[in-house]
Amino acid sequence: MSEEKKEIAKDMEGEAKTRRDFLQDMGAAALLGAAALMTGSDEAQAKTTWAEWFQKNYRLMTDEEKKEATLRLEERYSEEYGKKVAVDGSPAIKGVLFGMALNIQKCRGCRRCVYACVKENNQSRSDPQIHWIRVIEMEKGKFLTESMDKGYPNSTGESYGIQVGGNAYNLAGVTLEGQHYYEAETVPRKDAFYFPIQCQQCEKPPCVKVCPVRATYRDPDGIVVIDYNWCIGCRMCMAACPYWARRFNWGDPNLPKEEMNPKTHYLGNRPRMRGMVEKCTFCVQRTREGRYPACVEVCPAGVRKFGNLLDPESEIRKILERKRVFRLKADLNTYPKFFYFID
């Protein structure tokens, strides 16, 4: 290459580098300018949204970044709800694997657990109404003589149904058959029993496997959590969950200021946003401080037992050893840490 061509190439390279540096500087300036404008806003949410958009997944943050993220939320929530709000970031307790067991023989269907959960975990009160716990009312069912001739198809001269019997569609108290939403003046209703369902905190959670952005994951203490800021609202986790345990915010959550619980956790009961998924976390803001979940405390019949599955002396370990225990949909190999038992 001639000296003249080398000189031209050098000039072009320098010009390209200068243009690239200019664009990078302008981009950085634009970001800083926009951030400054938002910081000057009077709205609490506008002051922190910018930083939230660009923060890492909580699981990958450094301790300092986690502290900054919780402080931003504390400032915004305190201003938004007119009270001092604490956003805890306590990690999982070492040597602990949380589990819960429920006595379906004693559940009366009062749903106090449902509404204690709503209150404790800052769930939307209406439009949309969010419940992390679902109590199913199931009928005991009957097999009727008068239904014997209602089967199908019928062979010549027969009326009993050679493929489907006449009593095939009668409810008979089979697990998960029944009313998922019921209204009764008094409970328990005659000839009915009740089956509460919530997140089963699976050891092999299918929801975690399908999340395309790793917004939901399993913590070392066994609690399956959600980084709300990373959830993109695709609802693939809802489709994968066989326990109907996840809820989607179709609209802006309705949480009255006077009813907002100010003691929150980043991965638990802090106020959520529209367009993301939420679920039970075993009241992570309570259990990582050595307290029972709200549903356990409020149950008048004491049907719920909670504790450390790794502790041989814990109440839940004694339940597993001494009672007749089963896991819901055990055939799916999700290995729940939520158990059901009877005396």
Task: Draw up the topology in text.
Layout lengths: L2 H37 L4 H10 L9 H19 L4 E3 L9 E6 L8 H9 L13 E6 L52 E6 L8 H5 L5 E3 L5 E3 L9 H5 L6 E2 L14 E3 L11 E2 L5 H4 L6 H5 L5 E5 L6 H8 L1 E4 L10 E5 L1
Parallel strand pairs: 1-8, 2-12
Antiparallel strand pairs: 2-10, 3-4, 5-6, 7-9, 11-12
Helix pairs in contact: 2-3
Report on this structure:
The structure is a single chain. The protein has 343 residues and is α+β, with helices and mostly antiparallel strands. Among the domains are: 1-40; 98-133 and 198-342, Alpha-Beta Plaits, CATH 3.30.70. Helices cover 30% and strands 14% of the residues. It has 9 helices and 12 strands. The strands form 5 sheets. It has a 4-stranded mixed beta sheet with strand order 10-2-12-11, covered by helices on one side. Strand 5 and strand 6 form a beta hairpin. Helix 2 (44-53) packs antiparallel against helix 3. It is elongated. The protein starts with a helix and ends with a strand. The mean pLDDT is 88.
